[in-house]
Amino acid sequence: MATPTNAEVASSDPGQLKTSRVRKLFKAFQYRDFRLMWVGACASSIGTWMQIVAQGWLIYRLSHSPFLLALDQFLGGIPIFLFSLIGGVVADRVERRRILLVSQYIQMASAAALTILVAAGVVHVWQILCLSFLSGLAQAFGGPAYQALIPSLVEREDMPNAIALNSIQFNMAITIGPALGGLALSKLGEAWCFGLNALSFVAPIITLSMISARFLPVKTSDSILSSLKQGLNFIRDRASMAALTVLAFCITFLAMPLRTFIPVFVKDIFQRGPETYGNLLSIMGIGTICGSLLVAGMGNMRHKGRFALIVLICLGAGTSAFSLSHWLPLTYAVLLLVGAFMMALFATTASLVQLITTDDMRGRVMSVYNCAFRGGMPMGNMVSGWLVPKFTAPIVLGVNGLLLMVLGLFFLLFERRVAKL
């Protein structure tokens, strides 16, 4: 009878197998620079969500105007949509770490200015709106630089894991930030929320100063418009990249209204209050973290395109199931799955785009992809918001879910450019 080797014994040890799975799940954390970026971004994102909670409260307290609440969101988001393409060109021409540092300083100054205005009792809504636009402008340039910098922090085979782990920090911030913001708002006041957000930007500034990775752009005499055309031509010449960009817009256009109209279901269908609304959002947030962990655990798997399209079909089915549910426990379960499907889909498609793109084009390509991804959200919410009063929220979201399934089946069975990736 043969005696098992030490390697065979180790491989059969459940404890070592579990440790191996955990290491695979968090593999990108083995890279020092990625760990630093992750920690800094997470701290800053939590602070940002604390400010979002307090800022909405402050605007409504000062104005009692729902329109100004919506205007604040619009002014904070429209610079990202308008200027991300230019931000992508800049990210391919300037050392990306420097762009990120400037973006963090501007957002920190904006939060600090709001802190001083509130603490001094001289704040007005127009000042808040201007500062929101300024922060959005900084994010329009910082966002493409951040997305383009991540792949340079890890090896190519670990890029999907890094993108999934980055999604986790974003969703952790969505879960933790509003909770801390509500607590600080009730116990300490609005100025403290803005001040803590300003302080949170110290973390990414320190970590960005510590990372050793550098992007050395190639000097070019091309104009910004010419560089932007090069990025668009890069996407056009790669059919799968164009398909992924179209998919990104369609997915957010059809899927994101679900989160927007949860309050309608809470109030009109379940006859519940804010506590149920908060619980549903938390359950969905837990689902998004689970979806990110799933993609992180799978690593650089084969057939990522096919996997993304299957998840897209599941997301559509989950969206339609949510629209039909009149039983609260079922709705909790469905939202958990929807959150997981949504984030697994977002992380996988972003990984595919990053893997196809060359480093010298990464800023421009990611800015186009981000513009499509972010552009689908407000447009989808606007169209669904126009349709809901005419046809009711369950019907509109149910149709959105069916369209997501049709979209996934179309790309899976007929237009197979993404399915072959």
Q: Helices and strands in order, then pairings?
A:
Blueprint: H1 6-11, H2 14-25, H3 32-63, H4 66-91, H5 96-119, H6 125-149, H7 159-187, H8 190-200, H9 202-210, H10 224-237, H11 239-255, H12 257-260, H13 262-269, H14 274-298, H15 304-324, H16 328-356, H17 362-391, H18 393-413
Structural class by sheet pairing and helices: mainly alpha
> Mean pLDDT across all residues, rounded?
82
Number of helices: 18
In total, the number of domains comes to 2
Query: What is the subunit arrangement here?
Result: single chain
Calculate the terminal CA-CA distance, rounded to whole Å: 46 Å
**What is the makeup of the main sheet?**
none
The CATH superfamily of the largest domain bears the name: MFS general substrate transporter like domains
How much of the sequence is in beta strands? Answer: under 5%
Annotated CATH architecture of the largest domain: Up-down Bundle
Q: Stretches where pLDDT falls below 50 for ≥5 residues? A: 5-11
Number of strands: 0
> What's the CATH first level of the largest domain?
Mainly Alpha
Order of helices and strands: HHHHHHHHHHHHHHHHHH
CATH names the topology of the largest domain as Growth Hormone, Chain: A
Rg measurement, Å: 22 Å
